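Researcher: We are triaging several targets before committing to wet-lab work. For this one, the compound of interest is adenosine-5'-triphosphate. I'm pasting the protein sequence and the ligand SMILES. What I need is the predicted three-dimensional arrangement of the protein with the ligand bound, expressed as structure tokens, so it can go straight into our comparison scripts without reformatting.
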Amino acid sequence: MALIGRAAASSALRRWSCAAERLVQHSQRRLATVAVGISGGVDSAVAALLLKRQGHEVIGLHMRSWDVKDESVPEGEMSCVEKERHDAERLCRHLGIGFHEVDFVREYWSLVFEPFLQSYRHGTTPNPDVACNRYIKFDLFHQHALSLGAQHVATGHYARLRRDERTGRMQLLKAVDESKDQSYFLSCVQQQALPQVIFPLGGLPKVEVRRLAREAELHVASKKDSVGICFVGKRRFGRFIAEYLECTSGPFVCVETGMTVGTHRGHPLYTPGAKARIGGLAEQEDRKKWYVVAKSAQENTVYVCLGADHRALKTSALLTDTPSWVAGDAPDALRLANESVLRCQARVRYQQPLNACEVRLSEDRLDVAFEQPIDYVAEQQVLAMYDGEVCLGGATISQRLENVMPLEGVQIHG
Ligand SMILES: Nc1ncnc2c1ncn2[C@@H]1O[C@H](COP(=O)(O)OP(=O)(O)OP(=O)(O)O)[C@@H](O)[C@H]1O
């Protein structure tokens, strides 16, 4: 009897001490208040759900970065901006977390959208998502989230963070689900924001994120992933850009022959590497096969070639503007040795396979040589550099070098 009593008492004690331990861990974790960027989509909602389950005090922060006035919405329909806000608020209510809003419409316009338009005017192809992450989400938005009393700021980005044992700085890593990896868009984010950042989805496959959303009965569980540039919403890009930039028709010129092979509807509507869809040609087959090589804004000319494998679409070397290193400084290979060369991998587009390259610093710019020529390099897009799974940083491409242009003297820079 006494034995049974002692066993029961000690098991009760064990249960109690486990419960107490859980309570202590729980209350310690509760000390962290995490502001989650709630977009109205499934990823950030699941990020908030997971943080809440871990015991954090979670608040939802929705940002308005685009004015309803700048969306043409059919009568009686809700604009994209309003729909996202509505979904974000409903999600916070469902998750039982506070809902906060912040307006960065003006800042987004001047730091992201104006430079985006300017770049298009000059005949180049910018990346507004990289600029948005650097100047808005991981700077102004981040600071605002901290000013609300949060110690951490989380987003639904697919990427991971790790502290570098040697330097003590934060490293940006690719997501485990490579098909969703967003480190490319984060490659120009600055080190100072990263110690407070959490990416709860970096280790999860997207299918698991959707499953968690369904299990938690989030109304956005089956909502489509956002594709393309966020402010364009569901509109066709051509129609959208034509509202802001003058698009006048001009010639499509074949880089091989120098001959005009069709008429384009305005150079801003075309991106190097994309199909040109030249109309007016008799052969349907040919129409399918023209690709944009380059553009000249000055001459309002779009240069094209026949076939996706044409050597005019390949680039083996390029120059960039001043790079942005996630660690804050350039990697040791570029800083410490004379004649220093960084051997790494790089991509020039979201989800492009990584390409081996050599990077040299020339003044404060990068001179990049690829082991094999790569496809579809567009000026003003971002080059993101990697050492295995670590994203080292990014830089805006200022010039394609050694791209094969069979037609001597074709001037492609606007
Ligand atoms: N309007 C917004 N307000 C607050 N945070 C935002 C907003 N838009 C995006 N974010 C944050 O940035 C992350 C990445 O944004 P992105 O536009 O790539 O959306 P996404 O991958 O489709 O994610 P989601 O499914 O959450 O919309 C989001 O998961 C979210 O945390």
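Researcher: Any quick observations?
Model: Residues 258 and 407 are 7 Å apart (CA to CA).
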